[in-house]
Design goal:
alpha/beta, Aminopeptidase, eight-stranded mixed β-sheet, 8 strands, 46% helix, binds zinc ion
Amino acid sequence: MEDKKIKLSKGKTAIIIVCLSLAAIILLSTIIGPHVILAAVRQPEVAKEYNYSEYFLNTYDEVRENLCARVQKLRDSGATVETESYAVDEDDDLYIDNIYLPSKKERTNLIVLTTGVHGMEGYIGSTMLDVFFEEIYPELDTENTGILVVANVNPYGMKYYRRYNENNVDLNRNFIIDWESFDLSSNKEYPKVKNFLQPEGKIGNALWHEAGFYLSLAKEALTVGADTVSDALLTGQYEYPEGVYYGGNGDEKSTTYLKSVFEDTLSGEYENIIHVDIHSGYGPRYNMVIFNSVYDKMTEKETAKAFGYDNIIAYDSESFYATTGDTTDFYYRLRDAKKSDKELFSTCFEFGTIGDEFFDTILSLKYTIDENRQNKYPSDSKITSEIVKENYMELYYPTETEWREKTVEDFVAAMNGVLKTKLK
Ligand SMILES: [Zn+2]
């Protein structure tokens, strides 16, 4: 047989190489690249069994069912439990659940626990309520100590896996004493980086999107400074309703409700109020930080010593940052405005997730911006939507076993420290 060799001209070879390269680029950017990114960001599968695994829940309905079961369990054990559900949106079955266990005799101490002020963070909050009732409650002197739980303060955010509520409002920037005198343009940094924090249009191809984010971050950091970008965010903003960390322009429904609960406690019978608001997403990974209000006058060192707990942010800490409109500052300000003589300790338990190193902070920022953008302009790409969702989950509710077990350990240690110091 004659060996037929097809000889191509140099021109044709070049065209084929170009075509193959283009095909490879298209394949890489549209199919392989996004899949590789998704595989890289996907959270690990949740282990079947670990400490408290049955209390790490995944839907708002599960959280409410679990709360009902908890109330039943407490009643079965002989406790008096009063419950109330406040409707944020009846049609969408969105409720704030209020559970009160009065002290049996003297009204000395009232422990107030709030969860889900930032919707997504209500999942770890829900777990910690179980941990509280399993590990802490049995040791309490219920003769003189009452317990008040306000669970799922932002039920919309819990149901739809968002930090914000039904009006895109960040409730932990919405607790303002007097809106009339409040300066809505108090955040001077946000407008400078608004375009970076609120990009317009849908997120397109995942691969180009990743590259584009870092390029625009580099540009912003160079023009306005990296500190401006993070300051613009954390303090909250009141001018851009579609933006991130938007604090609203008046009391949200959930806020009105929680404010009235706080007021009731300040004019109520208990003389000593200890409030813990449970959050996640800020601080070092595998560490829960007790983040005190600026109105608490104990220093970081004093607090750590008193509580026997190392991870403290107090008003004098280097990493302390002031926020506007958060629940803990509000509680103190309300007490002073009402001239209440109650003793009050109101603090925030913050579970670190991504971490607090330089690059972790950038990632947290990215996930925050992407999720808000995806919420306003849902992407056409299923894989892009998945990536955004996985990242957001990692930002507030990691699946990793080691992380989850450590949250339980830290919560118990911190709660014991606080109560040992603050209970009478
Ligand atoms: Zn939070």
